[in-house]
Amino acid sequence: MRGGKEGTGARGGAGELGRNLSWADRAAGATVVALLAVIAGYVWGATPANGSMAAGASVLGGIALAAALLGGLAGFLFGIPRLLTRDGQLASLATRRPADGAGPAATPPNKVPVAGFAPLQGNSNLEEISDWVTKILVGLGLVHAGQVADTAKGAAAYVAEKALSGFPGAELVVLPVGLAAFLLGFLFLYLQARTRITLTLFMTEGIQRAGLPAETVAAANDAGIAADARAVGAAAGARIGTPLGPAASVAADAVVRGYGFDELVSADEFAAWGAAQARARNHEAAETALRRANALAPDDVRILRRLAEVRMLRGDLRGASETLAEARAKAPDDPRVRRQELLLSLYLPPPDGFARARALADSLATDARTDRDPMVHLWRACAYGQAHRWFSERGSGADEMRAARDAALSSVRSVVELVPDPASPVRGLLGTLLDPGIPGDPTADNDLRDFVQDPEFQSAIRASVPEGWRSG
């Protein structure tokens, strides 16, 4: 999950920031030298015979310093960072209990206790003052722009008359020197407030942390979110692979959930936090975190697959299917995405559901990476079984029904060939799909029920029928 590549990227970003700041420092220094050279040149050439060069240089230097300080103050107020989270800035989740009533209530992500988090926070008065002053300055500047210009010209004329009497063209020099110094101070302090001062405040407030341990993030992300039928060894009466519920929590989950939502930084951390919440049955919090992870890493197909799992656990099959379709568009050659989408498609309304499932199943059944997966062939049989039933109920042509029946039979035989043990969960599930009369869950899927009296289907899966059961 996190690894050397991410660390290299962070170090590279820090190095680039350092280089940019160094360039800005040099540019500011060169501008100061140029401004001093202009002042020195003017004083050298314009000092009257009875005047003092030192006095002229001091006046212009004082003007430049005062203007630079004033501009720096404005730049600092405009650029001061916002470090503290105000009420309502971060979206929070209402505390809810999962729909099935099981498990603990979901904890709003920005209310989870953070290990080692200091109960005291820095004073934000300067931040509030910055907001007020900048708004006042902008408002007054827009309304009285003409008066500001006239006042600046009047001040320059006053200084030229009172402090630089006898210096030719003093008024024309005072205003540009003051304006240049003001802009230089503003830009320099604004940049410092956005970079170095921000980092200093981060460290002072203790907000800049090392982050979740990489191995903990990896463990939380590698663990499964949902326990499917095959994973728990379900046999007769089980559904065809839909999640039976969240997977068991792993040791890393407690550490990950110990961090608040607003303490997470990277896509990997949000994904790990979401996975840990899903295993704790806090599905709403899990979906929020995974959506944030997807926003940070939109091309990470693994995050989209996780998001689809959570939506499936919440019962949002349509949303889960759309998420997987997005993942398949970004990674069309990833068999894991197509396999997951195939399973979901079997639960979408016909004919779109089985049409999508048939296309996905056909591609997976002929893919060298998945053609030995018995569940792929079982789901393919289900897709064609659904198609056969839909055609039959609507009185479609015999050719379409025959094609669907033959494809389903071919897949059933593939399952039997790949799983020769008749006592295996997959083979028991195959018998349940053919006839819901097998003892088990009355709500179990029965996508192959159209063929319960078909002797070829009976012959193909006879060994998978539990002992003591016979078709009527």
Descriptive notes:
This protein has helices at 4-46, 53-79, 125-143, 145-162, 170-194, 196-205, 214-222, 251-257, 267-279, 283-296, 301-313, 317-330, 335-345, 352-365, 374-393, 398-418, 425-434, 455-461; strands at 226-227, 245-246. The chain has 472 residues and is an all-alpha fold. The chain folds into three domains: 4-84 and 121-205, no CATH class; 213-330, Serine Threonine Protein Phosphatase 5, Tetratricopeptide repeat (Alpha Horseshoe); 333-472. The protein has a two-stranded antiparallel sheet with strand order 1-2. α9 packs antiparallel against α10 (283-296). The two termini are 54 Å apart.
Question: How would the blueprint of this fold be written?
Answer:
Elements: H1 4-46, H2 53-79, H3 125-143, H4 145-162, H5 170-194, H6 196-205, H7 214-222, E1 226-227, E2 245-246, H8 251-257, H9 267-279, H10 283-296, H11 301-313, H12 317-330, H13 335-345, H14 352-365, H15 374-393, H16 398-418, H17 425-434, H18 455-461
Antiparallel strand pairs: 1-2
Helix pairs in contact: 1-2, 1-5, 2-5, 4-5, 7-8, 7-9, 8-9, 9-10, 10-11, 11-12, 12-13, 13-14, 14-15, 15-16, 16-18
Keywords:
mainly alpha; single chain; 3 domains; two-stranded antiparallel sheet; 472 residues
